[in-house]
Amino acid sequence: MSDAIPSGEYSMSPDWRDSLPRRRGRIAFDEPLAPYTWLRVGGPADVLFLPADEADLLEFLRHLHPTIPVTVLGVGSNILVRDGGVEGVVIRLGKPFAAIRAMDHHRLYSGASALDSQLSKAAAEAGLAGMEFFTGVPGTIGGALVMNAGCYGAETKDVLLEAYAITRQGERVILSVQDMGYSYRRSQITHEHELIFTGALFQGVTDDPADIFDRMAAITARREAAQPIREKTGGSTFKNPQGHSAWKLVDAAGWRGKLFGGAMFSPQHANFLINTGEASAADLEALGETVRGDVAAQLGVQLDWEIKRIGRP
After folding, report:
1. Domain residue limits at 40
2. pLDDT given at position 8
3. Domain presence at residue 74
4. Neighbours of 144 (CB within 10 A)
5. 76, 140 in Cβ contact below 8 A?
6. For residue 35, what is the DSSP state?
7. pLDDT tens for residues 276-306?
8. Domain assignment of residue 4, yes or no
């Protein structure tokens, strides 16, 4: 029943890391990725690259051999890195890609590494409504663009005007919201092309900042009451199947709060996978697959992963 992302096959010489393109940003070999993810599990990246700026990223990609896989990592809020680590180059966008600035016509630009909550706060301070929901979405704007992130009835597609990205070949592209091919927690274009998002333009509507902040506070209170936000978790584990709530299915299958090695689904919210402290990535993924199997067998419903799983077992 697994719908995991395959690690892929590629041909690289054993010393490929000695021939990486010139760059100004930071490079690290065999960098442990567990500290970069909310679940705190996973093996190392063959290479971790933190570009100095967009020009540095462009040049690196243009000269990186096309057989070398590239994986983008945000703040790791909705990702499971397997214990064997990630092959190729893992790119993490940092502070140079985190700028947020007000634009004309009630719009905001946000860099891809800015936190979703930072965008909602900036919008509120500018008196722009419509982006309050981002305060309840863990992760970065780049991740939100990839998966059409949202909560409580609002999604990224509702406020996005344009997304800015770089292709695997190192070319800049501008994508309209229509180009993104959005559906529930999915962007079709990211399934068809390798893209690294660097920023986006959002449309707001004018409103009183105090009223906007009040709505954000209500979202935060609702989230804190219902979700285990202070645990080692990756957020929503499964997408909601049509006509169902994933947490209700996990609960009905008997997996709410039940330990599986060092992993379990939260007693507070049964769609939140938790590392209780000693879980491996294998524990977490095996629990997820076991629950998917039980839900299918007992309830006749297929659960699909929302958490992205990457790397070697």
Report:
1. 16-94
2. 42
3. yes
4. 29
5. no
6. G
7. 998 999 999 999 999 999 999 999 999 999 9
8. no
What distance in Å separates the CA atoms of residue 155 and residue 136, rounded to the nearest whole number?
A: 11
pLDDT recorded at residue 11: 54
**At 116, which helix (H) or strand (E)?**
helix 116-125
Q: How far apart are CA 116 and CA 243, in angstroms?
A: 27
Catalytic residues: 185, 236, 306
Average pLDDT over residues 132-138: 95
CA dihedral 255, 85, 165, 59 (to 10 degrees): 170
Predicted pLDDT of residue 231: 86
203 and 248 share one domain: no
Task: Label residue 47 exposed, middle or buried (CB < 10 Å: 0-12, 13-18, 19+).
Answer: buried
Domain boundary (182, 217, 252) is at 217
Q: Give the count of domains, the chain.
A: 3
Q: Tens of pLDDT along 66-90?
A: 999 999 999 999 999 999 999 999 9
105 C-beta neighbours (distance < 10 Å), count: 7
- Residue 158 predicted with pLDDT over 70: yes
The residue written with tokens 């409103």 in the block is 207
